[in-house]
Amino acid sequence: xxRNVCKLCGSKKGLQQSHIIPKFVFKWLKESSATGYLRxxxxxxxxxxxxxKTELLCWDCEQLLSSWENEVSKSLFYPYQxxxxxxxxxxxxxxxxxxxxxxxxxxLMLDDNIKADLSPSLTQKIxxxxxxxxxxxxxxxxxxxxxxxHLLDLL
Length: 155
Ligand SMILES: [Zn+2]
Known about the structure:
The protein is mostly helical.
């Protein structure tokens, strides 16, 4: 992947520090932790207050993904945490889910050590997944096709 180019739209408008996992998740984890602080499993002696960020998206793409994050946070995540009742949702949940999956997988593929351990066929499949999700996020495709999203309630 080329650095300094938006990994989603391909523009060279300058990259933002993008959260890989949405900020609202870390906010909730801090609010619900006993100490009010978070620690990362790989280095538990260091407090991690805001989640992992990296240069991934341009400002426009960051705003696009943030709009779905905000809707999920406001309409589903926080209401569900307090009520544990079924909630209705619309297309924004699928957009958010795909964008989150895309961000995590894109981030992992930036790591040359991870890429080196992948077989050529798996690398090709991952590139197909990322392209499909990107096209769905950018409204080029109407759905993520065979690369579905499933939401599990593990709480
Ligand atoms: Zn972009």
